[in-house]
Amino acid sequence: MNTKGVRNNVWLIYGYTFATGLFFDRALWVLFLVERGMNMAQVGLLESLLHFAILFFEVPTGIVADLYGRRKSMLIGTFISLFYALFMMISGNFFTFTLAFSLMGLAITFKSGASQALLYETLQAGGKESSYTKITGNETALFLLSLSIAQWTGGLMAGLSWNLVYSSIIVAQLLAMVVVWFVKEPERVAVPEEKKTTLQLWKGQFVDTLSIWKKEPSLHRPVILFISVVTVMTVVIFYAQEYLKRQGFSTGEIGFIFMAESLLGAAAAKLAHRVEEKIQFSKLFQVIYFGFLLFLIIFAVVNGWVSVLLLYAMGMLSTGLEPIFNNFVQAKLTAQVRATFFSLISLLTSFGIMLIFPLFGAVVDSIGFVYSFIGLAVLLVLMRVVLMNRGPRAA
């Protein structure tokens, strides 16, 4: 692929990422469900159902992307997203909402590993793999920017009509489908092999992915610790809404706080490649991990705007880590299993979120937020200690 082709693909992937991030109900769906008659138990069940769908479909859809093409997988995922918005708009009962959330989880799995693999292979085809961290950082920044815009404008739309919110999501996803349609998927070198059935291909794909895990022990520690950070940060972000509310912040202030958090995360992702160029991965990973851990402990015991600043710091560290981690992993994978492997990482992350979310909520009800957040910090310490003497020092 020539330089022009690489540049065109990168810009199209940027456009796709921005458009797919425009879910205008991002910070509002709980309020929407409550207005439609759902209680908090049902809301929690729907959120768990979404992660269960991700857990169930993540690896199979990653295999689809590896076997049949990343672009096709992204198109399928975006198409399914249309039905999420449609069902949310017309739903009035719990059953239909379960369909919407299940479809959303399925859509996420089709898009997750495929978009990362397509971006890396585009750069690889043009001999520009060294730019991956910078480019994927830009992509993450664009996604967070679109998320911020969706949070801000979604609130304005909801004040007029919920139908406007969900019809706008449909328009954004249609635009994303148009953009990805023009992406040129790089050719992959075909590996000569005997003709196999679909079942044999899928089984072989999963076995090949596991063999990469076994052959690359340097991946073990960073992958597990990365999943730990992402899981903990997801829990912190979700429950911080109520945590800040109990501190006396108004709903409007909380909305602004999380919009700013997304923008700061975008800046961190954008600048990640500059830091990566100056510091070795293993050292940088440790600095980010222990920095995140320290901020989490302090966040648990302070109040007011200091806690908000610490929330921003944790968000920037976790978001900045993502493109750096992705680049480290991408370099160790073959094209045949790239999307499947990243889907496996997403699967494990979803499993962690499914496990920690309800447990954390129960602990908060029993002992409060302070000790619960400290408990998350203890969990990160234990993960690091357990992995300390296992495998080569990749992180």
TrEMBL record:
GO CC annotation: plasma membrane
Superkingdom field: Bacteria
Coiled-coil stretches noted in the UniProt entry, renumbered to this chain: none
SUPFAM superfamilies the record matches: MFS general substrate transporter (SSF103473)
Residue ranges of domain Major facilitator superfamily (MFS) profile in the record: 1-395
GO terms assigned for molecular function: transmembrane transporter activity
InterPro entries hit by this protein: MFS, MFS_DHA3_Transporter, MFS_dom, MFS_trans_sf, Sugar_transporter_CS
Localization per Swiss-Prot or TrEMBL: Cell membrane
PROSITE patterns (alphabetical): MFS, SUGAR_TRANSPORT_1
Predominant location category: membrane
Keywords of the record: Membrane, Transmembrane, Transmembrane helix, Transport
Transmembrane segments: 12-34, 49-68, 75-95, 141-158, 164-183, 223-241, 253-272, 284-302, 341-363, 369-387
Membrane topology type: Multi-pass membrane protein
The keyword Signal belongs to this UniProt entry's keyword annotation: no
One Pfam family from the record: MFS_1
PANTHER family in UniProt: PERMEASE, MAJOR FACILITATOR SUPERFAMILY-RELATED, TRANSPORT PROTEIN-RELATED
Name of the molecule in the record: Major facilitator superfamily (MFS) profile domain-containing protein
